[in-house]
Amino acid sequence: MFEVGELVVYGNKGVFKVEAIGVLDGMFQSGKEYYTLRSVRSSSQMVYIPVQSEKSPLRKVITKEQSLDLLERLPGLGQLEIKNEKLREQTYRESMDKHECEEWMKVLKTLYNRMQERRLRGKRATSMDERYMQVAKKCLLEEFAVAMSISTDEVEQVIKKKIHQ
């Protein structure tokens, strides 16, 4: 169970602060307890998650030490293995749905390299690649920025340097 004031990651939606825990008034008359979560990126975004939900992809934000360790491992981190182009999106989705920083890093690294290869051949990135790049980037940059107490722009620069190593 999470505590009020704790920072959590909610699936691929980003980092949220637990604002309250309790039974909701109004249309939710189930008597169940819910986490009231507020986005750290957009204070107007609120989410209500059942406390007892096993399907809810809710976890604690990684620590600064964990984020630094992941960044150090990024150059040696493998890419996603995509053997069949028809299964590319499924592979991206399955990796993203694990809701783990290391998986998001693999998606980013795979897409970054794929986009560079396509550019060198005079081709543009596909809309699917751009979409998954945006989601993976948002998730990873937001969590690392919170964990390391720096801006998302600074995190992005560090990641770009590590990918090139």
UniProtKB/TrEMBL annotation:
Cited InterPro entries: CarD-like/TRCF_RID, CarD-like_C, CarD_C
All copies of domain CarD-like/TRCF RNAP-interacting, residue ranges: 1-112
Pfam families from the UniProt entry: CarD_C (PF21095), CarD_TRCF_RID (PF02559)
Superkingdom of the organism of origin: Bacteria
Name of the molecule in the record: CarD family transcriptional regulator
